[in-house]
UniProtKB/TrEMBL annotation:
<keyword id="KW-0808">Transferase</keyword>
<dbReference type="InterPro" id="IPR002213">
    <property type="entry name" value="UDP_glucos_trans"/>
</dbReference>
<dbReference type="Pfam" id="PF00201">
    <property type="entry name" value="UDPGT"/>
</dbReference>
<protein>
    <submittedName>
        <fullName>Uncharacterized protein</fullName>
    </submittedName>
</protein>
<comment type="similarity">
    <text>Belongs to the UDP-glycosyltransferase family.</text>
</comment>
<dbReference type="GO" id="GO:0080044">
    <property type="term" value="F:quercetin 7-O-glucosyltransferase activity"/>
</dbReference>
<dbReference type="GO" id="GO:0080043">
    <property type="term" value="F:quercetin 3-O-glucosyltransferase activity"/>
</dbReference>
Length: 394
């Protein structure tokens, strides 16, 4: 909380401000750069998040090469790009309360069938502002010079190939955008936290710890978090839980710790971590794949329901934490505990868990190969830079 308001409210307000109020200041900044005598300060290309369509307008007005950066899955881009097909079939805007949750959408080019219930929450009929903003952003991509996707080609080959065929511009898969693991942390509070949780992880058996984090933008309700904590304690699973509302490190019991912050990628790549309970945000999904750990899915909103569909049903590298009696019902601590035991294979005889871990290791290998020299993402990034330079020279 900050000043009586939840942190998510501030982030949402900042996000809306960047979307709606930054065009004029950005143009003023470009004007200032043009007045510099230094030729290296001349702006020759703009790379902007797809959700900032005003950046495309600025680039077009000034005859500056504009590149759109899509920061979630190609599948979601394809869904939004084909809202005309969704509308023709009575599926857009999406009405999640219509009793049609199990209807299959099987007509999006290059995309496997998906239930209406698994569509992105940003297309919800009840949130007109959100779906209009997403539609406007994706529509603006048509006016850019190319599109970058923060994925690797082998992860979603069919939908990526289809986008390359139907979009009248180059499309490059250049992800995942994985930062190098941090070796130094300037913030002393973070340093203390890091020492605490890394020492604890070092003392745990290999593949035994469940890492639990639900992101920094949307989160589960306080009541649901109580059930999650209760289930973790009952399950017998070793766990590291990130609780962003807390201030201090906390040893829950001999099997679990709670921290206010951690270096997520460093944790996921630690040999003692054997699973990731995630909200299914795209960055977290890619980091889990990079680390080769299976994913326990608990989506809250935005693109997360669609990502869960990819993780569990298409890639088969994760399991669901399901609500049984409707969307508003809490997942009880008893349900949580039984799911965690199965997911982490505490009894040692769960074939689904074993198969899931094998596939997660295979995805890790393909992900890292894509990032290596000569891999698909590395090659695409080189081609993108080369083509942008040639475009500007011409």
């Amino acid at each position: 909380m900050l000043g009586g308001l939840a942190l998510e409210q501030f982030k949402q307000r900042d996000f809306e401000a960047v979307q709606t109020k930054m065009e004029d200041p950005f143009e003023q900044f470009l004007d200032q750069l043009q007045q510099e005598d230094d030729p290296s300060m001349v702006v020759t290309a703009i790379l902007a998040d797809t959700l900032l369509p005003w950046a495309v307008s600025v680039g077009n007005r000034r005859n500056i090469t504009t590149v759109s950066l899509w920061t979630t899955s190609p599948s979601l881009f394809s869904i939004v790009y084909h809202t005309d097909l969704l509308a023709q079939n009575g599926h857009f805007p999406v009405d999640f309360s219509s009793g049609r949750a199990d209807e299959l959408i099987d007509y999006i080019p290059g995309f496997s069938p998906i239930r209406l219930a698994d569509m992105p929450a940003s297309l919800n009929r009840s949130n007109e502002q959100a779906y209009k903003a997403v539609f406007e952003a994706v529509s603006a991509v048509r006016k850019t010079q190319c599109l970058l996707l923060t994925t690797y080609h082998e992860l979603e080959p069919r939908v990526t190939k289809t986008l390359m065929e139907i979009l009248p511009k180059p499309v490059y898969t250049v992800g995942p955008s994985i930062p190098l693991p941090t070796t130094l942390v300037d913030d002393h509070a973070k340093m203390d936290t890091e020492d605490f949780y890394l020492e604890w992880l070092d003392s745990q058996p290999e593949n035994s710890v469940l890492y639990v984090s639900f992101g920094s933008f949307l989160s589960a309700s306080s009541d649901q978090m109580e059930e999650i904590l209760g289930g973790l304690r009952q399950s017998g699973v070793r766990y590291l839980l990130v609780s962003r509302g807390g201030k201090d490190n906390k040893m829950e019991n001999s099997r679990g710790i709670v921290v206010p912050w951690c270096d997520q990628l460093k944790v996921l790549c630690h040999p003692s971590v054997g699973g990731f309970w995630t909200h299914c945000g795209w960055n977290s999904t890619l980091e889990g794949i990079y680390a080769g750990v299976p994913l326990l899915t608990f989506p809250v909103g935005l693109d997360q329901f669609t990502n869960r569909k990819l993780i569990v049903d298409y890639w088969k590298i994760g399991m669901n934490v399901m609500k049984k009696d409707g969307a508003e019902r809490l997942v009880t601590r008893e349900d949580v505990a039984s799911t965690l035991r199965k997911f982490m294979n505490l009894d040692g005889d769960d074939e689904e868990s074993k198969d899931m871990r094998t596939r997660a290791s295979e995805f890790k290998k393909s992900c890292r190969q894509a990032l290596m020299e000569g891999g698909s993402s590395s090659t695409n990034l080189d081609n993108f830079i080369r083509n942008i330079l040639q475009y500007n020279l011409s």
